[in-house]
Design goal:
Blueprint (H helix, E strand, L loop, with lengths): L6 E7 L2 E6 L9 E10 L2 H9 L1 E2 L2 E2 L4 E2 L3 E9 L11 E4 L2 E3 L4 H4 L9 E3 L12 E5 L3 E3 L6 H5 L1 H13 L7 E5 L3 H12 L4 E5 L12 E3 L5 H4 L11 H10 L12 E3 L12 H6 L2 E3 L4
Parallel strand pairs: 13-14, 14-15, 16-17
Antiparallel strand pairs: 1-2, 1-6, 3-7, 3-11, 4-5, 7-8, 8-12, 9-10
Bound molecules: zinc ion.
The site of zinc ion has 5 residues, from loops.
Length: about 290
């Protein structure tokens, strides 16, 4: 394959995925051009492919998918001094477009002006060549493979979630959802000292979940407890399901005082008074 081609995975709309040759992008100020080595496929990519949207993010134009990537630096844009051609890097896919007050107090992830790979209107990383802000590319040591480098973004989500949930020695943890992020949360929670972890989902991966985890409901609570007005299953139904389960098989989780929920673009519609029922503190564990 020619080095001048840039074969990319483009989502055109619901169910319409194409391999397409795009121009090789050139790095601008403070950017690097990367030859991509490994890119994970996130559930959000699957949503854009199957539904053309993720929560409130709608694709208005064809979009290259992928935001969990690692690549090798092939060109430096002006102003880049901390990386060299040949460096392998892991990519932080989301960064603020303005140096606003959130950046100044160290919480750039909360900026309202975020760029994020493979989030409309921005292309993602499932290309042979991809250009990214060099300040959000992190050099990998030789001991870390590119595949492991691509896993750093989803792993960081799990670490952030467990920190937000204040997991510590002896914690009892309930994880709703046994996909890759749920399983990473399981591993991180165990490594932070959690004493008991229950994980539930559509198909709990039994081969992946034996490291001290009990498997849970056997089906996805949000699917079982759809919104009464027929809306998209969201996280309020998860709360309702937890309410039903609270005195059931998971009554030993009564001490659980804090519930970290991935809102995933959903709006929490229930009045805050219901949370007192659980004595639960809602903390958003993602960005
Ligand atoms: Zn992702």
């Amino acid at each position: 394959m020619s080095v001048h081609s840039n074969l990319s995975v483009m989502a055109y709309g619901p169910g319409d995925l194409r391999m397409e040759k795009l121009p090789v992008p050139e790095p601008g100020l403070n950017e690097v051009q990367l030859q991509m080595n490994a890119v994970g496929i996130c559930r959000s990519d699957v949503h854009y492919w199957q539904h053309g949207r993720l929560g409130s993010f709608y694709m208005k134009n064809p979009m290259v998918l992928g935001h969990e990537g690692a690549g090798t630096v092939t060109k430096l844009g002006p102003g880049v001094n901390h990386l060299q051609v040949g460096d392998r890097v892991a990519i932080e896919p989301a960064y603020p477009l303005n140096n606003d007050e959130f950046c100044k107090f160290g919480r750039y992830n909360l900026s309202p002006t975020m760029f994020c790979s493979a989030t409309p209107p921005y292309h993602g990383q499932l290309s042979q060549y991809y250009v990214h802000n060099a300040n959000y590319c992190f050099k990998l040591p030789d001991s870390v493979s590119s595949e492991e480098g691509a896993f750093i973004e989803p792993l960081s989500v799990a670490i952030h979630a467990c920190r937000r949930a204040r997991v510590k020695m002896g914690s009892k943890i309930l994880i709703c959802g046994a996909g890759p992020i749920g399983l990473l949360n399981l591993l991180v929670a165990k490594s932070m000292g959690a004493a008991q972890v229950v994980i539930c989902g559509d198909s709990v991966r039994g081969d992946c979940a034996p490291s001290g985890a009990r498997t849970g409901f056997g089906e996805r609570p949000s699917a079982k407890c759809r919104h009464p007005r027929g809306g998209h299953p969201g996280h309020v139904p998860i709360l309702q399901h937890l309410r039903q389960q609270w005195n059931g098989p998971y009554s030993n989780f009564r001490e659980l005082g804090l519930l970290a929920i991935w809102f995933h673009g959903q709006t929490l519609r229930q009045k805050p008074t219901c949370y007192r029922f659980f004595e639960v503190v809602i903390r958003k564990p993602t960005r």
